[in-house]
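DM between two lab members

TW: hey, do you still have the Thioredoxin entry open?
JB: yeah, one sec
JB: this one, 126 aa:
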Amino acid sequence: MTSAVVAFLSLVVACEKSDSASAQGGSPVAGTGVPHLVDLGADKCIPCQMMKPILDDLEKDFAGRMDVTFIDVWKNRDEARRFGIQMIPTQIFYDEKGVELYRRSGFIGREDILATWQRLGYEFGQ
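TW: and the structure you got?
JB:
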């Protein structure tokens, strides 16, 4: 096993839901006034690499209406614990006040991201 895989497996074992800020009653994302999508992954993760252009396009297409943040949890292990990440990629959808609305893991395409926002009450269009 590569050292990155060993480090990730150690991270997964160390991360417990009770360590996340949201489990402690706080939000790890400050309210920004607009909905916020946080994608937690790693630069060397294949599904994460596939999502990068999708996230970049969302950030550009909906600037000022939606914030998009990518966090590399292999480079920022404290962030993985802070967000309670157990698998990558993980996407967390926050409202404009920083309240977590929905969380999912695995690759997700643009249409599914926008459909999720719509189910959560936010209309961005395709």
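TW: got it. Residues 3-119 form a domain with the Glutaredoxin fold (CATH 3.40.30.10). The chain has four helices and four strands.
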